[in-house]
Amino acid sequence: MSQTLHAAPDAQLDFxxxxxxxxxxxxxTRIGFWLYLMSDCLIFASxxxxxxxxxxxxxxxxxxxxxxxxxLVAVSTAALLFSSITYGFxxxxxxxxxxxxxxxxxxxxxxxxxxxxxxxxxEFSHLIHEGAVPQRSAFLSAFFVLVGTHALHVTxxxxxxxxxxxxxxMKGLIPANQIRVQCLSMFWHFLDVIWIGVFTVVYLMGxxx
Amino acid sequence: MSEIDHxxxxxxxxxxxxxxxxxxxxxxxxxxxYLIGFALSAILTAIPFWLVMNNVIADxxxxxxxxxxxxxxxxxxxxxxxxxxxxxxxxxxTLMAAIFTIIVIVIALSGxxxxxxxLNTNMMPGMVMDPSAPII
Lengths: 209, 136
Fold this sequence. Notes:
The structure holds two protein chains of two kinds. Chain A is mainly α. Chain A is 84% helix and 0% strand. Chain A is built from seven helices and no strands. Chain A has helices spanning 2-5, 13-54, 64-67, 70-95, 99-129, 138-171, 175-208. The longest helix of chain A is centred in the N-terminal third of the chain and has 42 residues, at 13-54. Chain A is elongated. Chain A starts with a helix and ends with a helix. By secondary structure, chain B is mostly helical. Chain B is built from four helices and no strands. Chain B has helices spanning 31-53, 60-82, 93-122, 125-129. In chain B, helix 1 (31-53) runs antiparallel to helix 2.
């Protein structure tokens, strides 16, 4: 690194590029993934806008107060929040090169994510069983699309997490795996941020209406 | 290289791209910062749930505003303590992208809600069927 910095100006850009190529590639991975997350944010923003516009159109059907079970939402919120801190501990262990404990924290994160997903699926099946299906009213369509898209993201996050645990198990904490763990970290915390919006706008404000 | 060089003022210098003071150019948390973030999030989640479950605030409007306030603060806590957003990570570009995204989101959300709300209230069937209204 310092050799690069101290290189004479006429030792040139292509020399610089060749040496730094590896490094720059990793940097662009992280910023590129961040830009993907920002575009994902826009998807959720439009789904929130749809819910905001249609959320009160019950078509004489059930309203949030009839359907939602706040203690259940509180439990799934807690599961997702705990999974954020366990992922954080996995990141810290990765920085210190502790592969075993890092995998354990990642596994715990995956289990908490699965608990969250299980509760969401339980809620969905419960709603459908009660006849509160997406085609019942505009409110329910918007609800299923918004919460379902979030649950789909969590599903893919868990799949990614399992694949990554296998990769780390096989290849160890090589730089490529570290970048992947960092990207999944952003993804996972991002999903938690979206869930804050969901439980605030859909569940808590729905119960107030 | 000092951190000031990441600010962009001298971004034409190749050395700036090398992130010399942060080996992989992004900020990492400490055990303490994660625990602080977790504690804040837990509190900021528990309070709005408690408010709604026990009907603490009678006025729906005020309760809605309070709950949304907690939500916004908690999102900020997550961005700072879990996503490690600051003005320096990736030379400030993560923050730039985030600010741009937030501007687009605010325009899309407030615009949609505003337009559709007015469409709803101004196009109500009741207005057309109001007998006292002049029919043109």
